[in-house]
Amino acid sequence: SAVGLGSWCFHMTLKYEMQLLDELPMIYSCCVFVYCLYECFKYKNTVNYPLLFLLITYSFVVSIVYLNLKEPVFHQIMYGTLVSIIVLRSVYIVLWVYPWLRGLGYTSLTVFLMGFFLWNVDNIFCDKLRALREKMPPVVGAVTQFHAWWHILTGLGSYLHILL
């Protein structure tokens, strides 16, 4: 819901400043994934307050810095850090804890990382891709919308990861 709300805010305004509201929920949802991955093997129904505090603080600090800097590279690094933590923990889980889930784990990881890769390509080469799309037939141009592929692939990868 956080990603959806942020996306809605961005797409309804179509202002560059509002794009920040589209990207910050990526940080928040990854923090939820990190928390779940580190809490999924508990025997007691307790809350890991130190981890919760760390992730909330991380989200808050990243939000404040990003809203002030408005630097996409900062966001990409902070998001990439969370994704790296998720990937490392997930690989540990499918290698050592639930090895029979390896196929699902690696499929989820591959789909998500393909989306992450396309998102970064779109961020880095946005102007060049836009110019290239103007020269292509509309159908081909639509398929090269890497930001859209990012949403599709990370949504699918996240869904598969939740199944994991």
TrEMBL record:
Pfam families: Ceramidase (PF05875). The chain crosses the membrane at residues 47-67, 79-98, 104-126. InterPro entries: ACER (IPR008901). Its cofactor is Zn(2+). Zn(2+) binds at H11, H147, H151. GO terms for molecular function: metal ion binding; N-acylsphingosine amidohydrolase activity. The keyword Hydrolase applies. Its EC number is 3.5.1.-. It is found in: Membrane. One of its GO terms (biological process) is phytosphingosine biosynthetic process. GO terms for cellular component: endoplasmic reticulum membrane. Pathway: Sphingolipid metabolism; Lipid metabolism; sphingolipid metabolism. Its main location: membrane. It catalyses: an N-acylsphing-4-enine + H2O = sphing-4-enine + a fatty acid; N-(9Z-octadecenoyl)-sphing-4-enine + H2O = sphing-4-enine + (9Z)-octadecenoate; an N-acylsphinganine + H2O = sphinganine + a fatty acid. Keywords: Hydrolase, Lipid metabolism, Membrane, Metal-binding, Sphingolipid metabolism, Transmembrane, Transmembrane helix, Zinc. It is a multi-pass membrane protein. Coiled coil: none annotated. It is an enzyme of class 3 (hydrolase). Belongs to the alkaline ceramidase family. Hydrolyzes the sphingolipid ceramide into sphingosine and free fatty acid. This is Alkaline ceramidase.
